[in-house]
Amino acid sequence: MELFYYLVFGGMSAVVAALELSKNNKDRISTSSAFNSFKNSYLLVYSLMMAGDWLQGPYVYYLYSTYGFGKGDIGQLFIAGFGSSMLFGTIVGSLADKTGRKRACVTYCITYILSCITKHSPQYKVLMVGRILGGIATSLLFSAFESWLVAEHFKRGYDPQWLSVTFSKAIFLGNGLVAILSGLFGNLLVDTFNLGPVSPFDAAAVFLAIGMAVILSSWTENYGDPSENKDLLTQFKGAAVAIASDEKIALLGAIQSLFEGSMYTFVFLWTPALSPNDEDIPHGFIFATFMLASMLGSSIAARLLARGTVKVESYMQIVFVISSAALTLPVLTSFLVPPAKVKGGGISFAGCLQILGFCVFEACVGIFWPSIMKMRSQYIPEEARSTIMNFFRIPLNIFVCIVLYNVNAFPITVMFGMCSIFLFVASILQRRLSAIGEKPKTEEWNMLREKNTEDEPLNEA
């Protein structure tokens, strides 16, 4: 079955190369040299930040197991990470709007470097602190950098459509190429140089430190609403008002939570789905194949976003339906394909079919990221961008914690079926967002924000 892996990887590599090389003027957005310099500077930092994240991913579970911890203890460490992202990360990430997005990005680097350092200790309490720090860093990674980029883009007077160029390139590089190279580099450190499972975390800290140096030396600061009379609680209330008063923002948050919740659940499920009878599968190579599929998706998204005739709200309905269908494959194969009777061995025929379906899902993930970034830049008010984006992650983190806690309580087919339903619901909500997206933005956000400001002196009195 090794030939199958190479055929899938080689086939997708050829398609990605063909898509990139065949781009014409219709598939490219004409930009200025000043913007290209700004874009490349951001992409360098974003790629370094993602390298720091991707280097750790494949070795977290493995490192904990080498320290002698069982599945239950490791599960609690993972839950602590997502719980930290939900609680502390929401607070720290929301401070970016007030204290500055550049400072928040530097805080991400420092927090994640400290998390990497804790991996040198086999003490459970120290590792727990590391997971809490990692959860905070994750919230900053997925809010502060995008918030800084959008604000800086508009502050410099660049065309709003050019944002989609940066978004699609960031996903192509950061979530595709960098992920593949990080996996190969981590494998080189651990298996080839025999430096141990903690070495990828040391390498991640180095990349994060380099990225932090670039941020400190070249980025300017920008803010959401820097009003001195606004405390954190007022920011939270303002963000809640924005979500409650604008159906478009609420729909966007629900869509994001449904898709990302399904995506993170998939991360935990794909390994047992492909090896239900302890089949010997090349995890690293399959991971690289999935990342290549994500690159394929981001390349498709770049073409779609470059063409003004296709609205992001329209094509994402189709993407969610396709992703929903892709995650039904494990359910269908469990009924239609007889299970293997022998333990071990190579991947089964059902596993091969599932890999193809999972590649389709990963391609949808590649389309999703730049597209959701584009929609967030359109619908989320600048004053509370980081705060609202972190609010969106609260239901996501709750969902992932529940899944992790009950991962052994339900059959794997039930979990995939649940994800498929969530993705289909996301397509319905996306259809609603497309229908109301043409309407002018509501003014209630500004009106209610002003009202909250006026009420503050009364509350203090």
TrEMBL record:
It comes from the Eukaryota. It is a multi-pass membrane protein. The chain crosses the membrane at residues 6-22, 43-62, 74-96, 129-150, 170-189, 201-219, 285-306, 318-340, 346-369, 390-406, 412-429. The keyword NAD does not apply. InterPro entries: MFS_trans_sf, MOT2/MFSD5. Gene3D superfamilies: MFS general substrate transporter like domains. The keyword Nucleus does not apply. GO terms for cellular component: plasma membrane. This is Molybdate-anion transporter. It comes from Penstemon smallii. The lineage of its organism: Eukaryota, Viridiplantae, Streptophyta, Embryophyta, Tracheophyta.
